[in-house]
Specification:
The complex is a heterodimer of chains A (167) and B (273). Chain A is of the alpha/beta class and 167 residues long. Chain A is built from 5 helices and 9 strands. Chain A has a 5-stranded mixed beta barrel with strand order 2-3-6-7-9. In chain B, helix 4 (85-101) links the parallel strand 1 (70-77) and strand 2 (127-132). In chain B, helix 6 (164-175) runs parallel beside helix 8. The chains are: A alpha/beta (167), B alpha/beta (273).
């Protein structure tokens, strides 16, 4: 098992599709609305080496904690990902894989990590809530800043065009 | 509120908590059966995550999946309980209570303005299906969007009966990784355009530890696709196929396919009357 901590750099180029990784460090949730907001209004965080999590969590705002936070279907973000990678994002986490177009956009610079769909309780047990950006988008669509400890992911699409979702 | 309606609202809240935090035993058993025969190492790793996740959810009493769904409710009511608007209001109140106490993600939005109601209720939802019964019993079925979005209905021709397995398999093939496989497939055969969809959903409420030879045939055909857990490849793409049939017009053959993710949740609570 490989251990990685965000922000990520050129170590992502050494990863291969199928590698199991324990991922730690700060990540940012973003779904459809957040991708469009970032495209139109800019990043509320430093995108260099950042990891984006395709996720709309359940947050207990009174206790400031993540209750449940499994991945959402990444394919919805197929046409909303290029501007994130161009700005320096080095990792995506989601479920279900992405398009051939994104596979090419990842090439030579970033990877797609698959995290098991539905595993929201396991994910939350690896998470501490650090903040919220674009709260006006609501709980599911807002950008939540989360600190991970050892989230068990698998490299679904590597930076060399290998894609476990293709068959 | 009438005390009976208070009890019903509490029962709905309790059934939702049960459904959201503990997977029914037949579904968990089917996942273990799939794990024991899985040969793909990535798929085995994904199933290990699923088992670890079920353990955390059960221990901490938190939702298994953050898509806590939109609610479909089935009620049986005995003769002594009148069918009133109060029953429907109590069900909605139970959902509002559960949204805060479990807690649930607010998922219900206006279809066009996309404005979120904040409490998982809204115009026309939850769908509440009421049948006569011996007891007042509430069954909650939370349905996540990832799998619901991959569902399809086709008005087939009466001459196409032999093509039903092929159609069902093609719906699952087209869905690929998106509905969080290994999936459970509910198939509604017959009825009308609308009731075929209801049959498909009701088929998903049946325990999955047995299949007819027809259901098994479709399940085997889906598992030949190699989609695997989460679409990462593997031996099991489908845990079970469940069929519910109803009579239909002599010129019709409606077929509805309702896909369910591996997290097939249901909660049942009896209410004292």
């Amino acid at each position: 098992m490989i251990r990685l901590t965000t922000p990520l750099g050129d170590e992502v180029l050494d990863l291969h599709a199928g590698d199991r990784v324990l991922l730690s460090g700060t990540i940012y949730t973003a779904r459809d609305e957040a991708h469009m907001m970032i495209r139109d209004e800019g990043f509320p965080f430093d995108p260099k080496g950042a990891v984006i999590y395709h996720c709309g969590p359940v947050i207990d705002e009174a206790q400031n904690k993540v209750v449940a936070a499994g991945p959402t279907t990444s394919a919805r973000m197929n046409d909303l990902t290029k501007h994130m990678l161009d700005a320096g994002v080095r990792g995506l986490i989601g479920k279900g894989g992405m398009s051939a177009k994104v596979r090419e956009e990842l090439r030579g610079r970033a990877v797609y990590f698959a995290f098991t769909g539905g595993c929201a309780a396991l994910a939350a047990s690896c998470m501490e809530l650090a903040g919220c950006h674009y709260p006006e988008l609501g709980m599911a669509e807002g950008v939540w800043e989360i600190i991970l400890t050892d989230l068990p992911v698998v490299v679904g699409i590597d930076a060399h065009g290998n894609d476990l979702f293709v068959r | 509120m009438d005390p009976l309606y208070n009890r019903l609202a509490s029962a709905v809240e309790q059934a939702i908590r049960q459904a959201e935090t503990i997977l029914p035993p037949d579904v968990e058993e089917a996942l273990h059966t799939a794990y024991n025969k899985e040969t793909n190492p990535t798929a085995r790793g994904e199933l290990e995550n699923i088992f670890a996740n079920l353990e955390v959810a059960r221990e901490k009493n938190i939702p298994i999946c953050q898509d806590t769904g939109i609610f479909v409710i089935y009620l049986t009511i005995p003769e002594t309980v009148p069918l009133t608007s109060g029953l429907y209001d109590a069900v909605s109140e139970g959902i509002r209570l559960a949204t805060k106490s479990v807690p649930l993600r607010p998922n219900a939005v206006d279809p066009l303005s996309r404005k979120n109601s904040g409490d998982n209720t809204g115009a026309g939802i939850p769908a509440v299906h009421i049948l006569p019964g011996d007891t007042l019993r509430v069954t909650v079925f939370p349905k996540g969007a990832g799998s619901e979005n991959m569902s399809q209905i086709r008005m087939m021709l009466p001459s196409e009966i032999s093509k039903i397995p092929e159609f069902v398999t093609s719906v699952v093939r087209d869905a690929g990784s998106r509905p969080c496989p290994p999936v459970i497939v509910g198939v509604g055969i017959g009825g009308t355009f609308d009731s075929a969809a209801s049959f498909a959903k009701e088929a998903l409420l049946a325990p999955i530890n047995s299949m007819t030879s027809f259901e098994q045939e479709i399940c085997d055909s889906i598992n030949q696709l190699g989609i695997g857990v989460m679409g990462l490849g593997g031996d099991t793409s489908c845990l079970a196929v469940k069929v519910k049939e109803g009579a239909c017009h002599t010129a019709s053959l409606p077929i509805a396919v309702n896909i369910q993710c591996w997290c097939s949740r249901r909660g049942v609570v009896e209410v004292d009357v």
